[in-house]
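Quick start: read one record
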Amino acid sequence: MGQWLRLLLGCGGIDGKRIVSEAGFQEMLTELTKVYEEPYGLGLWVFDPKNTNGTQLYGHPGGVDGFNAEFAFAPARKLGFAILTNSSDAGATLSHATAKIVFGYLLLQPQK
């Protein structure tokens, strides 16, 4: 997950090597549809900057029986977060709540 976040924060490149074209990366971040009335791109939720202290944020939760994951990233701020749990029911609540706390704190910090 760390390497995936590095790729996303590098806007499709990592360690000086472009993996995803600029156009492809921008398409991934573009709202293409609504899921549960929320903006959704190519496998990513596109969060409204009005709800994230003016910062464009993207992410996605996921899980299978016994495991849960959640990640989010803000390319403009070079911030990314991933939490992995080994619990299905409580894990979803734990990972979502933790992501909200961490990003809430990070997004309130002044931009440099």
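The chain has one domain: 2-108.
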